[in-house]
Amino acid sequence: MLTQEIFKANDIRGLAGGDDAQWDADGAYALGVAFVETLDLANKEKAFVLGRDMRATGEELSAAFARGAMALGVDVIDIGLSSTDQLWFASGRLELPGVQFTASHNPATYNGIKFCLTGARPVTAQQLIEIARRAYDFEARHNKPNDRVIGRLRSQDLLQAYADHVRSLVNTDDMRPLKVVIDAGNGMAGHTVPTVLEGLDLEVIGLFMDLDGSFPNHQPNPLEPENLVDAQRAVIEHGADLALVFDGDADRCFIIDETGEVVNPSAVTALIASQEMAREPGATIVINTITSRTVKEVVEDEGGELVLSRVGHTYVKAMMLEHDAIFGGEHSAHYYFREFWGADTGMLAGLHVLAMLGRSSEKLSQLVARFDRYANSGEINSSVADAQETMNKVAAAFKGRGYVHFPDGLLVEGDDWWVNLRPSNTEPLLRLNVEARDPELMASLRDEVLGLVRGE
């Protein structure tokens, strides 16, 4: 079973298991067949790497996908439980396409798939459409999967190799001792972080490090403030220098400073971008349409080049490769590195922040202060009947007050402020982000747009 709702702009994601399931093991089998056919793997690489997160349906769905692929004679290298960036690493190291079973930050009842081409390169929108078309066609032609298996399945543990590679990309010499809170949220960071941090001069306070796809403590979505409260409380309680909070598949990392305040992900982007441009003057940095103007100012001040991408990991990764960018960052706390095949990795970003703080005499709040120049609303979600009609309504209300255009949803730009309203790539929501130099103006713009969107 496959329903249209599971096919998103960047990946596959939907309810799995239970009476309201939007896809099941038979659908996963069909997707395995479609993936091989779309990429012509039986005639090209003849193999791919497969990983999964800790969700309850992950083992069944990924196994069915593998059977579908092997029925066409393609080999599967199964790396087992893995974070999404560990799968990107495996694709880059083994020079094979990759498939990661995960629903990222979505609730426990969801599951999904993220794909990549050889070398962790992103699949295109057209390839995702073709995978969907071929999967539907397979289901229409077959009542159930067949039992034929031609390809081989073999397991390979790449956790230590992944950890070694991430560590090799960051200078951790001469770091002072740090106390760090790690909130894995019962997600895949509990699997990867201990191995990556092993041997560093860190006192680690771990929160919810055991893998549990039911997420008994809080949802695996650090974009929602309520999911950061435990780490904020732990930083204060333990007198920690900072906290790293990961989402479910551990490809995103949120940072909390020593005061318990959340560090704006755009400030983290500017901080790392500044470091990378010092290492490579004139380097290119990729951001998306909702990243703070602070990043643009920092890149321009330090002589770098800036490239603007649509929101979403496949779009940013494509821009990273096209422009040979050294680093990229999204306001959702996705961070991309040239030395990591242009892919996103929350662990590498967190390690960079740890290393920079460890080599500095400043506290984290002081270190990032110059990179946080604007007041921002954070991402505010609303359910609407018609996203395009709602964006047009807001655009009309702002006519003559700023530059109104649609590079990725609606973007209205003033001299010292901007408003972005765009449909989610993964959920039936309209997402609002507002930024202004003046906090009162930001609040006024935020409230005005929410009133238009929600009819208040």
From TrEMBL:
The gene is manB. This is Phosphomannomutase/phosphoglucomutase. The keyword Isomerase applies. The keyword Transmembrane helix does not apply. Keywords: Isomerase, Magnesium, Metal-binding, Phosphoprotein. Pfam families: PGM_PMM_I (PF02878), PGM_PMM_II (PF02879), PGM_PMM_III (PF02880), PGM_PMM_IV (PF00408). Its cofactor is Mg(2+). Transmembrane segments: none annotated. It comes from Ammonicoccus fulvus. Residues 5-134, 161-260, 267-374 form the Alpha-D-phosphohexomutase alpha/beta/alpha domain. The lineage of its organism: Bacteria, Bacillati, Actinomycetota, Actinomycetes, Propionibacteriales. SUPFAM superfamilies: Phosphoglucomutase, C-terminal domain, Phosphoglucomutase, first 3 domains.
